[in-house]
TrEMBL record:
Top-rank taxon, per record: Bacteria
TM ranges: 12-32, 52-76, 102-124, 136-158, 165-191, 211-235
The species this protein was found in: Anaeromicropila herbilytica
Keywords for the protein's UniProt record, in alphabetical order: Membrane, Transmembrane, Transmembrane helix
Protein's UniProt name: ABC-2 family transporter protein
Top-level taxonomy: Bacteria, Bacillati, Bacillota, Clostridia, Lachnospirales
Amino acid sequence: MESKILKYELKRIIFSKIFVITFIIEIFYSVINLYTEIIQGVSGTSPFSQWSYCKFLCDINAIMLLILMLSCTGLFSRNEQRVKEITSCTALPTKKYLATKCLALILSYIIVAICCILISLVFYKTTFSFSSFQNFLLPILIILLPTFVFVFGTSMFLGSKSQTLLYAWIPVVLVLSLVSFNSTPFLDIFAKGYVAYMPTVLPVDHLGEPVFRLSLDFIMSRLLFTLVGMVLYVASFKKLSRKI
């Protein structure tokens, strides 16, 4: 029963007009960003440095999170209320039903992220014959995960209060994705300023590349964003499970 509902919810998300349109935009933007921005490197680093890849992830994350937030709005729409009337007839417990819907939202984000990452790997392989992709695992983890958890948790929390608050949150996130806070990681949700600033102040290795060294403040900020997002998600989950 759970797997059937998960497949149904995932199809509802990925085949919606909003998801398809924004997904296509994200794919095109990823390609353009790689061939115009990342190919030049970030702050004097090589295009395939971990700092440059962090910059790529920061750039594409805004649209990926936009897709996620727009998908979240569907969870609090009037159409969703009609769907609840149908699914309420099933034997699936309320909390499991809600958890399944949230899992579908998470999987939709992962699908978009995987597609963008695969595009970047093809770019590096074909353009630079670069295949040391294991170097990108840490950037993927520290850039995408904390921001995703924070924005998703906040979106769910605001949506559980009011759909209007969720819609108001979307432009705020987009504006934050454009702002660079440089050496203030606790304000830099997307870490865009950090990954552009740090290579300019770090020592270089034997190849002349700034070492990929993360400050304690930055690590703590990513943990904080993750923790806040998880707390807000749990709070929203408890509230929504009482509503259904």
